[in-house]
Amino acid sequence: MQKIFVAMDDSEDSLRALAFGQIFAAQLGADVNVISVVPMQGDIAARRSTLQARIAAHHLEAIALDVVAHDSAKEYLGDLASQESSGLCMMAHGRRPVSEMLIGSVTAGVVRRAHRPVYLCGPRYDSRAHQRVDVLAVCVDGSKLSEQILPHVAALSKRLGARLQLLQVMDTSVARKSTALGHTDVMESAYLNALARRVESEQALEVDWEVLHGDPADSIVSYLADSHNIMLAMTTHGRSGLSQVVAGSVSHEVLHEASCPVVVLRP
Predict the structure, then answer these.
(1) How distant, in Å, are the alpha carbons of 63, 77, 162, 236, 253 from that of 217?
(2) What is the pTM of this model?
(3) Domains (ranges, CATH) in the chain?
């Protein structure tokens, strides 16, 4: 990635995405470009003026700013996120309807359309606790679908000089139904250990791993709660992207509660 695009709208929340975009780009040695999409050509001047004033009010350094007119922000930003030479950062400030409450309809549409990971900041993102990326934690669940994000994050960890870590949650509500809980625990550990060794071999990276226990979303959020300088990576299994995953899903809950940036890929 040579350029980091930060998608901004006219909300104050989108400034958090800019804060992350600047941190991310600095560590990558990439340029930063703010991008904002409006529905009509006549809206460009007003949006540009609003964003310039907002950026200046927060004493941010001069940043390249492009405002474009397009009838679908989701489509335009999805195409931008799919480019290999760039990365797209966005705020995930969800509104109604309920299925999109925690992710935001535009953000969900971008994830659905993008062919590469999208870098998201949830409503609790804290740039003070995450001033760089030292650890890239990847959620896997034993499925090939969840593993499709691994080549992307392996390449990213090399660029960032970050440690790569695999995370898997053993859902205790499911495990209680098993008569061989200890056996299940061993099998899950064996899976992560084998996957870590495979990634090390294929990507020439050191990889560690951690098995968590409990409700998947709660366990991940608790694990991240006291962490600093970490980025979480995960796939969404929703057939139509995050907007179609029911509210309360792991992806939604983690993104809503985590204070760190979250990389999302729809395989």
Answers:
(1) 36, 28, 24, 13, 6
(2) 0.88
(3) 3-121 (3.40.50.620), 135-265 (3.40.50.620)
